[in-house]
């Protein structure tokens, strides 16, 4: 019998100076649409898609600087589980036999997709995901502060 991992809340959008709109969504397994169900089983994969939309004509590349799962809204809520840290590296990369990954190639530079293995929280039925998203100009190369990596800084994408 598989253990239910909990329900996940992740739908949010933040506007920065009315010029950029960031979004984060749980997607269907094939990435074709937003997922309608927020329930997961342990061992399932969360398909997380981050996007940025802007009114600027400058092409942008999106990065997930950090991403945590918590039991209450807000990145400072405790306890928390790091999904990405160290300016864009998947934290699960430090754990043997975990298959979390960034999807490559990107569908577009303004979109970043990652899969993360579902996990159980402590006692509540809800897990919230809070991410710090950031952008660079699309023509800038990834660097130590702007990357999407499987926790190995020498394997940046």
Describe the protein's architecture and organization:
Strand 7 and strand 8 (89-90) form a beta hairpin. The strands form two sheets. Strands 4-1-11-6-7-8 form a six-stranded mixed sheet, with no helix packed on it. Residues 1-8, 10-16 and 152-157 have low confidence and may be disordered. The radius of gyration is 15 Å and the shape is globular. It is built from no helices and eleven strands. 0% of the residues lie in helices and 45% in strands. The chain has a single domain (4-137), classed as Immunoglobulin-like, CATH 2.60.40. The protein has strands at 4-9, 12-16, 20-26, 39-41, 45-54, 60-70, 80-85, 89-90, 101-102, 111-117, 126-137. 26% of the residues are buried. By secondary structure, it is mainly β. Keywords: Disulfide bond, Glycoprotein. InterPro entries: ZP-C, ZP-C_dom, ZP_chr, ZP_dom. It comes from Gekko japonicus (Schlegel's Japanese gecko). Residues 1-156 form the ZP domain. This is Zona pellucida sperm-binding protein 3-like.
Layout of helices and strands:
Elements: E1 4-9, E2 12-16, E3 20-26, E4 39-41, E5 45-54, E6 60-70, E7 80-85, E8 89-90, E9 101-102, E10 111-117, E11 126-137
Parallel strand pairs: 1-11
Antiparallel strand pairs: 1-4, 2-3, 3-5, 5-10, 6-7, 6-11, 7-8, 9-10
């Amino acid at each position: 019998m598989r253990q239910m991992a909990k329900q996940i809340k992740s739908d949010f959008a933040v506007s920065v100076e009315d010029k950029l709109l960031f979004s984060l969504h749980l997607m269907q397994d094939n990435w074709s649409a937003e997922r309608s169900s927020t329930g997961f089983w342990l061992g399932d994969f969360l398909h997380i898609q981050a996007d940025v939309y802007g009114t600027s004509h400058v092409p942008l590349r999106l990065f997930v600087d950090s991403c945590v799962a918590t039991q209450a809204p807000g990145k400072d809520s405790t306890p928390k589980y790091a999904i990405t840290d160290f300016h864009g590296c998947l934290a699960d990369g430090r754990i043997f036999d975990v298959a979390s990954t960034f999807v490559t190639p990107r569908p577009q530079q303004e979109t970043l997709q990652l899969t993360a293995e579902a996990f159980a929280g402590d006692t509540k039925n809800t897990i919230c995901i809070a991410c710090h998203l950031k952008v660079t100009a699309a023509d800038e190369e990834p660097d130590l502060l702007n990357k999407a990596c499987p926790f190995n800084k020498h394997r940046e994408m």
